[in-house]
Amino acid sequence: MILEARSAGKTFRARRGGGAVHAVRDASLTARPGEFIAIVGESGSGKSTLARMLLDLIPASSGAVEFNGVALSEMNGAQRKEFRLSVQAVLQDPAGSLNPRKTVGRAIGEIVRLHGVASGGAAVRGKVIEALQQVGLNPPESYLDRFPHELSGGQRQRVLIARALVLDPQIIVADEAVSALDASVKAGVLRLLSDLKERLGVGYVFITHDLPVVKKVADFVYVMKSGEIVERGPKERIFTDPQHPYTAQLLDAALELDLPGTAEDLERDPLPLG
Ligand SMILES: Nc1ncnc2c1ncn2[C@@H]1O[C@H](COP(=O)(O)OP(=O)(O)O)[C@@H](O)[C@H]1O
Ligand SMILES: [Mg+2]
């Protein structure tokens, strides 16, 4: 299975003024199961627009996104069905990804029914419980009747991951999926994502403005600036030998933010307040 952007571009009409916004230009990337690719870049660089094209939420204005070699716009019914199961989204929790009026069991169960992965109460419940278990929510039964507001931020993010996983996806497109979480919770969710890659062979298109996060989890990195992918390469190379001045600038900025030390360092040796 392969998901590819081929010189994909997206132009919007500007929200003000009526001109054109080239949100993404000529972007090419390849996502496969078992591979953790990251797209990194500052706010407004076009990351979310590229993610929405990869998820078939918006069409490309130029070039194409292809699933197993077929443009998303050209897929037949069977191919579309396979795409809808194989490629899942995990978005940032504050974006309101979970309906506040639905319990965890219902939210995930509906997805199972909608996609015909299982039918009948017991089978659906079994799938939901399995997914909750896979994301480390234990005991899974204790989460079925809980509402989003009864969960912590990290637990909600795990529910979102479970909702994606329940369809046995091959690739998860995660847009700023851990950006809102506290450092220690974030580390736990990142470990979970890496673990799911190893155990289930899931691949990721992981989108973030947070370079230290990329360093932890990615295999391959794409750097975006002003709608363009300006650099791509294996993580080790990107971090040790950036070729584009913008990548070097991002690394410098991340280093500066890192200076006070990691969360663990801070716990041991807190900075003076005030
Ligand atoms: N629906 C839209 N209409 C007009 N402009 C948009 C729309 N969506 C995104 N943009 C613009 O496209 C650019 C890239 O946005 P986005 O993909 O959200 O960047 P990022 O996720 O990297 O912050 C921004 O200039 C943004 O204002
Ligand atoms: Mg974004």
Task: Please describe what this structure looks like.
This protein is α/β, with parallel strands linked by helices. The chain has a single domain, classed as P-loop containing nucleotide triphosphate hydrolases (Rossmann fold, 3-Layer(aba) Sandwich). The chain contains 10 helices and 10 strands. It has a 6-stranded mixed beta sheet, with helices on both faces. A 4-stranded antiparallel beta sheet has the order 2-1-4-5. Strand 7, helix 6 (183-200) and strand 8 form a beta-alpha-beta unit. Helix 3 packs across helix 4 and helix 5 runs parallel beside helix 6 (183-200). The longest helix has 18 residues, at 183-200. It is globular. Mean pLDDT is 92; it is low at 260-274. Magnesium ion (MG) binds next to helix 1. Residues 3-251 form the ABC transporter domain.
Write the layout of secondary structure elements.
Blueprint: E1 3-13, E2 20-31, E3 36-40, H1 47-54, E4 62-67, E5 70-71, H2 77-86, E6 87-91, H3 104-114, H4 121-134, H5 153-165, E7 171-175, H6 183-200, E8 203-208, H7 211-217, E9 220-225, E10 228-234, H8 235-240, H9 245-258, H10 263-268
Parallel strand pairs: 3-8, 3-9, 6-7, 7-8
Antiparallel strand pairs: 1-2, 1-4, 4-5, 9-10
Helix pairs in contact: 3-4, 4-5, 5-6
CATH superfamily: P-loop containing nucleotide triphosphate hydrolases
Major sheet strand order:
6-7-8-3-9-10
Number of helices: 10
How many DSSP-defined strands? 10
The small-molecule ligands in this entry are:
adenosine-5'-diphosphate, magnesium ion
Structurally, the number of domains stands at 1
CATH architecture: 3-Layer(aba) Sandwich
Radius of gyration: 19 Å
Under the CATH scheme, which class? Alpha Beta
Percent helix among the residues?
25-40%
* Secondary structural class: alpha/beta
Distance between the termini: 53 Å
How are helices and strands ordered from N to C? EEEHEEHEHHHEHEHEEHHH
Strand content: 15-25%
Q: How confident is the prediction overall: mean pLDDT? A: 92
Main β-sheet description: 6 strands, mixed
